[in-house]
Amino acid sequence: MYSPCHCTRLRTATRKVAALYDVALEPVGINIAQFALLRTVARNGSLSLTELGRQLGLDRSTMGRNVRVVEREGLVAIGKGKDQREAVVTVTERGQAVVRKAEPLWEKSQAELTQRLGPERMQLLDELWRLL
């Protein structure tokens, strides 16, 4: 008997949702993962790689790779923290401008996803996120 894999279905759904946001953010030259990174740092002023990874649910090595991509684009700067072993990320002026341009596009994607799924499913999504 065929039994669908819950993990595969969730991963597929996640890719589809990410693609919706990626298309919307394309005019500013970033994807949803980069937007989340920039927005999180911008809201905090600066964050260590460890804390940024914790807030985004990514391990430190993945976070480091993702940060280096946006650093090459001039959107963030990486410096040393109080503990010289810790890298600290800050958003550059260029990065701030990208976040400002991207936010309305992100908000439009949020509204589109909410409209497509409906309030009940959005509530279920929020509950699922909290449970996991």
Descriptive account of the structure:
The chain is mainly alpha-helical. It has one domain (7-112): Arc Repressor Mutant, subunit A, CATH 1.10.10. 70% of the residues lie in helices and 9% in strands. It has five helices and three strands, in the order ααβααββα. Strands 1-3-2 form a three-stranded antiparallel β-sheet. A hairpin with a 6-residue loop joins β2 (76-80) and β3. The radius of gyration is 17 Å and the shape is globular. It starts with 5 loop residues before the first helix and ends with a helix. The mean pLDDT is 93.
Tally of contiguous helical segments: 5
Main structural class:
mainly alpha
**Main β sheet profile:** 3 strands, antiparallel
- Please report which band the strand proportion falls in: under 5%, 5-15%, 15-25%, 25-35%, 35-45% or over 45%: 5-15%
CATH topology: Arc Repressor Mutant, subunit A
Radius of gyration (CA) equals 17 Å
Order of helices and strands: HHEHHEEH
Defining traits:
single chain; 132 residues; mainly alpha; Arc Repressor Mutant, subunit A; 70% helix
Topology, element by element:
Elements: H1 6-25, H2 32-44, E1 47-48, H3 49-56, H4 60-72, E2 76-80, E3 87-91, H5 93-131
Antiparallel strand pairs: 1-3, 2-3
Helix pairs in contact: 1-5, 2-5, 3-4
